[in-house]
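Hello, quick one for you while I still have it in my head. A protein chain has come my way and I'm curious about its shape. Can you walk me through what the tokens say about the fold? No rush at all, and the record is pasted right below.
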Amino acid sequence: MSESNSNSDSRPMSSTNSTSTDTNTKQGQGQGQGKQQDTMHLTTVLCFVASTTFWLVCLFRYHPNAWYVFQNAFAILAVCFVADNTAACLAPSLKRRQVVMHYFLGWAQNLLYILLFVASPSRFEKVWTSLFFGYYLFTWIMMLTQKAEFFFMFRLFYTIHHASAFFITGSWMIVSPCCFLDDNVFIYRAIVIWLSAEIWNDGLNTFRGIRPKTDKNVLRRMKTVVFVMERVHRSIAYFQPLTVPATQHNTLMWVVLGTGLWNDTLDIFFQLKSLCKHYREAKQQSEEKRRGSHLEVEVAVEKKEEVMTLHATAKTESDIVLDA
């Protein structure tokens, strides 16, 4: 009696211990994720403060029309918030609205770069800095004030990307006064080509946000094509110095090309990492599906063998009855 009671008492105690262990594990994981999110948020704040301060110092110290750029940038920022609130009213069920709007507004910004330069290179030269700063400032503010709406890798990539972009374009403003009197149309043509290359990725991610149920295999192929198109598009910018005589090459050109290569290296690293992840997941799924199909075949063969054995046994028994 005592042994049976002790055994019966030990079972609920072991299940209780396992349950408490699972609970503690989940709590530990939740606390770890919370610390990771807090660290990411602090990193975003520090990068925002440092890069934005640097960019504004460069603007007011070296740009000939600093207040014009600054005022227009805040007008662009206001347009971005109006567009986001309009989307919230028109599509309240849209999941990850802030992410979708980030990509959609980025797509619209890149399209404006192209249209402005085609219409007037001098107009593009005056306006592009305001477009750039206003839109990037919108993304910074959204990541800082609504961090729960942005997944971890998004915030990590765009924190690094935007901070790098502010330091890069700030360096362009530092160098530009020494080349102000030069014919820099080919440099601005390279800049508009280089900046607008993101139109491919922004367009794809906007589509993904609007159509989240699109087949993963289709999205993976589209992502691969977009990656190649963006690289081809951006590489064209680096060949623009070849369209003018070498006498027109100046310090601004070399700074733009050099800093652009750094940012491209950063983009390629994150995009290849994302593509590799998608292809690994697809490979794992295909292997699991293949193992599942093999298992189904083996089960079907075993069932068939069982049926044949049963028929053979029944036939043998009937033959024995007839012989009897």
Observations:
- The longest helix spans residues 251-323.
- The CA atoms of residues 38 and 263 lie 26 Å apart.
- Residues 1-8, 10-15 have pLDDT under 50 and may be disordered.
